[in-house]
Amino acid sequence: MDSLTQITLGATISVAVMGRRTAAWKAALWGGVAGTLPDLDVLVDHGDAVLNMVLHRAESHALLYLALLSAPMGWLVARTHGQPQLLRRWWLAMALALLTHPLLDALTIYGTQLWLPFTDNAVGVGSVFIIDPAYTLPLLLGLGWALSGHRWGLRANGVALGVGTAYLAWSVLAQAWVGQHAQRSLQAAGLPSQQVLVTPAPFSTLLWRVVAMDGPRYHEGFYALADGGRPIAFAAFDSGQALATQHANHPQVQRLARFSDGFYRVKEEGGHLWLTDLRMGQEPGYVFHFDIGPPLSADQPTPPPATQHSLRADIGAGLAWLWARMWGADVAPPGR
Per DSSP, what are the bridge partners of residue 222? Predict the structure, then answer.
């Protein structure tokens, strides 16, 4: 999730754990610090855009490492504020603020390596978008009430956590329901339904994007909860499967194929190979679009560092389409 949400979640949890045992601002401050610590791995540049992508949310998001970090962090906070009697409580607050960060990230589609060092398989449920005001705003309101010193502030903070948790549970259920509808729509259209991705469109869980891989093609469609039982209409696009097969030994192709769970595209333009992660974005705009250089050859057996060139859509047109489509309007996505 975005940094604001992670800081707010960490602060809200810490305030809930510490209660009236310490000043709310102290709990919020340290909870916010713990909530944002895992994302500091973005400051590490691996010298290659694809590596930066696949190595984000790795060791810094591993549950085991964060659990180990929580003990010294709790001790440091208790010592800093001269509260040795609250060591265990600070430890619990820091542990929960740290651990909920990767667990929340795992609900997005990006991929979070929760189980390092035992496996580097990334978890990406994909039931929430990376920015979702319906989740973040209740946390901000509850935290603000707690920091205001109002006598009902701590209760409001706890209610906000409950509302946020219920929303996340809803997102998983909604994703499952849309997934079943997508399967029926694909089968009715005579399209393959073995490799299907269902993720929310930006900023809400009222509109969902569906991608189905079909060998040399992939199919993209959208379903709003306001559509009722209307079948999903799909558009087909070239996946570059022949190029992917031809360059299957290319390390960058292998990395992205594994990290994206097969939801990727390969193109060749201007003598260079281009890789696109199909999970984040929509036609024709994608965040993770990489130039990985010329095809490997005897003269160039080692690939150059990949560079990222995000494909940006028109934001104004995109937001207008998003709002209309969210409420069931049958309008084509921008750029189609």
Answer: 209
Start-end of H helices in the chain: 3-18, 24-36, 49-54, 63-80, 87-105, 133-147, 153-188, 241-246, 251-259, 315-326
Amino acid at 179: G
Instruction: Kindly state whether residue 82 falls inside one of the protein's structural domains.
Output: yes
Residue 84 backbone zone (phi > 0: left; psi -120 to 50: alpha; other: beta): alpha
- Asked if the structure places residue 241 within a domain, the reply is yes
Phi, then psi, of 221 in degrees rounded to 5: -145, 165
Q: Is residue 152 part of a domain?
A: no
CA torsion angle for 48, 258, 265, 217 (degrees, to 10)? 180
- Tens-digit pLDDT profile for residues 20-43: 999 999 999 999 999 999 999 999
Q: What is the pTM of this model?
A: 0.94
CA distance 109 to 281: 11
In this predicted structure, the answer to whether residue 298 has a pLDDT above a threshold of 80 is no
Report pLDDT digits (tens) over 63-85.
Answer: 999 999 999 999 999 999 999 99
Cβ contacts of 317-322, under 8 Å, gap ≥ 24: 318/285, 322/201, 322/202, 322/203, 322/207
Q: How would you label 324-335 residue by residue, b for 16+ Cβ within 10 Å and e otherwise?
A: ebbeeeeeebbe
- Do both 306 and 204 map to the same domain? yes
Q: What span, in angstroms and rounded, lies between the C-alpha atoms of 286 and 256?
A: 14
Residues 97 and 207 in one domain: no
pLDDT the model gives residue 334: 87
Q: Is residue 290 part of a domain?
A: yes
Mean pLDDT value across the chain:
95
Number of domains in the chain: 2
User: Residue 189 belongs to what domain range?
Assistant: 177-326
Q: Are residues 112 and 220 in the same domain?
A: no
| One domain for residues 191 and 281 | yes
Do 189 and 68 lie in a common domain?
no
